[in-house]
Protein: Group 1 truncated hemoglobin
Amino acid sequence: MTLLAGAFAAVTACSSLPYASSEASHDDLYNALGQQQGIALIVEDMLYGVAGDARINHHFKGVDIVKLHQLLTEQFCDLSGGPCNYSGRSMAESHQGMGVDETDFNALVGHLILAMEKHDVPVPAQNRLLARLVPMHSEIVGH
Ligand code: HEM
Structure:
């Protein structure tokens, strides 16, 4: 298991903890990610990481990356308590038939972690965003 996958597994194991039980901490997370502009840069770097990763970039062949960047930015903004409403498809619908496995999932999350590191997002805030992605795992992997 890679270090990053291990880190994600640790987050998964802790996902029942009350990370963000109040609206205030939602807003804090949005701010810690650098608001709209910071999130857009994080998503951009994550997608560059994905594009350069031969383990997973075949999944993204032919995908409209500008649109994907816009939807991911909107989704993370929404999830972190920012002033956005995610307008894309459900995770189940958009990943249906893709055959995403555990390794693919951890690889993408690894690029997200690296992008957050690059933009100096504090580790507790990184973990809070990852914890909010955990419930999507079962809709994305194994379909
Ligand atoms: C935390 C994990 C993930 C999140 C939050 C996520 C989020 C999203 C979002 C918001 C979209 C846009 C939905 C739409 O088009 O309406 C999307 C599309 C897509 N995702 Fe993911 N995703 C995740 C993991 C993965 C993984 C692991 C892969 C493959 C390695 C993947 C491959 C794709 C592809 C190829 C599309 C474009 C689908 C299309 O345009 O038809 N995703 N994802």
Q: What stands out?
A: The longest helix spans residues 35-51. The helical segments are 3-13, 23-32, 35-51, 65-79, 91-95, 102-118, 123-133, 137-140. The radius of gyration is 14 Å. Residues 71 and 88 are 6 Å apart (CA to CA).
